[in-house]
Design a protein that fits this description.
The chain is built from 17 helices and 31 strands. The protein is of the alpha/beta class. It folds into 3 domains: about 300 residues, Electron Transport, Fmn-binding Protein, Chain A (Pnp Oxidase, Chain A, Roll), CATH 2.30.110.10; about 110 residues, UbiD C-terminal domain-like, CATH 3.40.1670.10; about 100 residues, UbiD C-terminal domain-like (3-Layer(aba) Sandwich). The strands form 7 sheets. Strands 8, 9, 10, 11, 12, 13, 14, 17 and 20 form a 9-stranded antiparallel sheet that branches. A 5-stranded mixed sheet has the order 22-23-24-26-25, with helices on both faces. Strands 27-28-29-31-30 form a 5-stranded mixed sheet, sandwiched between helices. Flavin mononucleotide (FMN) binds next to strand 11, helix 6, helix 7 and helix 9.
Length: about 600
């Protein structure tokens, strides 16, 4: 176990840390710098030595660390081992059988002893995180370098807070990573979404009419924050996973003003309570989908104390369009949770969530099929398991398919096996952040069964892009551009940019006449998309569609990935893209804090 300071020293030694001495503003600047950095390869951990808040006239004496999970190598170091090896250890435990014979029993002992590390240790007295104590009357959240990460954000947000809570009866503890909006000097908005464990606890306190104690830790061992986002089942304390991975138990101390236990080596702890009868508008917030999450009421925490280590470091992240720091956190989660997923889907060989599918929007899964409908059975299994049930689009391939991370090869493989009959479109729960479904929390799901043989039919008559564009424009002059991908497969993908003046459903009705030239047609808005940027097109399409409303199967597969509005009968507010502030980028460029060109800006949709 090492403190945040010790981690940063190690990272500096091996060249993974970049120290920024230039004063940078907590209002957008720090977040923009980190956002740009994490899109480079390999990106580095950033330590801002002199954060300032020009608006409030503050020069903080607390550095800010960003991109702690800067790349695969740093993430491996934080785990202390290869995530696949941790998965292997979990798999072994899951398959442990009662030993036969003395030798077998003895050989099991080390594994059983190691398990004692999973239980956090409660220590007496004060911890490192309590070297400095600010009582309720002294509490001033403005003293922390809390970042405003995006121009349209509703305020500053704590983006890497470890939120510790307990159930009303005190039997269950939870660590969740939820963002917290700073409302003023003493109050925070608690963005635990309805499906999350702290929200379930909150419901218990609400029903009992009792205030809920909460402590939010920042910093300490970076593995804590990874555990906070790990999708463990309800009732399992995430710090048990910490002990399992680290090989030593988390050491906890009691908060000063409530009875929540927190890691003794955290850099900062914000203690307080939530009145279940008080809700306040939270957001907007530029989120990890690359869109803003809009304003919604969330519970409020009243801060009763802030405790700190001497010389604390404030840890934060920025989310937005991929790739982001959460790509590396998510990679660890994906690998480590494979054996657990296999317990509900035993013939699953592997799965992968491409970063531009922002996790829940796209999952690829490889499996052994033993009977007709097997892939469909797994789709339903996925859509019914914990946070996996947020997955919107699940593509299944058979055991002889290419590696799931070889995107060209796997796409080709899938396109040769796709047909309208092999698509399953259904309904289920969706992530609270999903904006595309007609109503919040429930929406369409697409499952693709590409586990079978190649399909027989290909496009009857393949046209080149110009010919096809002309044919489309003859039908609807608002088709602005067109590009076909994977024309050598059975199902070429044709993307059109559309200047939407009528519903795309009507466009699809009309272009159905071009069935001999098309197998898969996808429409995106002309104003916001670049046809030769497939990375961002995948991001856009998987974000923007609700399979039930937006996919048509006949006479060929058509997908409406445009923004929805009244033309589509969409009644919610459609959120805007997360975009950087041009003046801030220009200022950072002129101060030589970042070095990016127009191609970079275009590639990642920064402006
Ligand atoms: C960078 C980042 C930010 C997150 N922000 C939130 C958030 O604001 N609200 C939320 O409910 N989940 C958020 N999550 C997801 C949760 O951390 C994740 O679902 C976790 O498993 C929740 O823990 P729980 O099941 O104990 O509630 C975030 C994840 C990451 C990686």
């Amino acid at each position: 176990m090492a403190t945040m300071q010790e981690w940063l020293e190690r990272l500096e030694k091996d060249g993974s840390l970049k120290i920024i001495e230039e004063p940078c503003d907590v209002d957008l600047e720090i977040a923009h710098i980190a956002y740009v950095e994490v899109k480079r390869s390999p990106s580095r951990v950033l330590l801002f030595k002199r954060p300032v808040n020009k608006r409030l006239g503050i020069e903080y004496d607390m550095p800010v660390v960003m991109n702690m999970f800067a790349n695969f190598e740093v993430t491996r170091k934080i785990f202390g081992k290869e995530p696949d090896d941790i998965a292997g250890e979990i798999e072994e435990l899951l398959h442990m059988r009662p030993p036969e014979g003395l030798m077998a029993k003895l050989s099991m002992l080390p594994k059983l002893f190691a398990l004692k590390n999973v239980f956090p240790k409660r220590q007496k007295g004060r911890g490192l995180c309590q070297q400095i104590i600010k009582s309720a009357s002294e509490v001033d959240l403005d003293e922390l370098p809390i970042l405003k990460t995006w121009p349209e954000d509703g305020g500053p947000f704590i983006t890497m807070g470890q939120v510790y809570t307990k159930s009303l009866d005190g039997k269950m503890q939870n660590l969740g990573m939820y963002r917290l909006q700073q409302y003023d000097k003493k109050r925070l908005g608690m963005h635990w979404q309805i499906h999350k464990d702290a929200s379930h606890f909150f419901d218990q306190y609400k029903e009992a009419g009792v205030k809920m104690p909460v402590s939010v830790a920042i910093g300490g061992d970076p593995l804590y924050i990874w555990c906070g986002q790990a999708p463990l089942p309800y009732g399992m304390f995430e710090l048990m996973l910490y002990g399992f991975v680290r090989g030593e138990p988390a050491k906890l101390v009691k908060s000063i003003t409530n009875d929540i236990w927190i890691p003794e080596d955290a850099d900062i702890v914000i203690e307080g309570e939530v009145d279940p009868n008080e809700m306040e508008i939270e957001g907007p917030f530029g989120d990890h989908t690359g869109y803003y999450t809009l304003k919604e009421p969330y519970p409020v925490m009243h801060v009763s104390a802030i405790t700190m280590k001497e010389n604390p470091i404030y840890q934060a992240t920025v989310v937005g369009k991929p790739p982001l720091e959460d790509k590396f956190m998510g990679w660890g989660t994906e690998r480590i949770f494979l054996p657990l997923l296999k317990t509900t889907a035993p013939d699953l060989i592997d799965y992968h969530m491409p970063e531009n599918g922002v996790f829940h929007n796209l999952i690829l899964a490889k499996m052994q099929t033993h009977y007709k409908g097997h892939a469909k059975q797994f789709m339903h299994a996925f859509w019914g398991v914990g946070q996996m049930s947020f997955v919107k689009h699940a593509l299944f391939v058979g055991e002889n398919s290419p590696e799931l991370t070889k995107y060209e090869a796997i796409t080709e493989h899938i396109l040769n096996r796709i047909s309208p009959e092999r698509l399953l479109i259904t309904e289920g729960i969706v992530d609270a952040l999903d904006h595309s479904s007609p109503e919040a929390l429930v929406g369409g799901k697409l499952g693709v069964d590409a586990t079978g043989q190649e399909v027989a039919d290909s496009v009857e008559s393949l046209l080149n892009d110009n010919e096809l564009l002309n044919a489309m424009r003859a039908i609807d002059s608002n088709v602005a551009g067109l590009k076909q991908y994977f024309t050598h497969t059975k199902n070429p993908i044709c993307i059109v940019t559309y200047d939407k003046k009528r519903s795309v459903k009507e466009l699809f009705e009309d272009v159905a006449a071009l069935h001999s030239h098309l197998k898969i047609l996808i429409a995106v808005d002309a104003q916001k998309n670049t046809l030769d940027n497939p990375y961002m097109i995948v991001w856009r399409v998987t974000n923007n569609i609700d399979a039930l409303r937006d996919i048509r199967k006949k006479p060929f597969i058509m997908v409406d990935a445009t923004d929805k509005n009244e033309l589509d009968g969409y009644e919610r507010e459609w959120p805007g893209d997360v975009l950087c502030d041009k003046d801030v980028l220009d200022s950072l460029k002129s101060r030589k804090v970042i070095d990016i060109d127009d191609e970079f800006i275009e590639r990642f949709g920064l402006l």
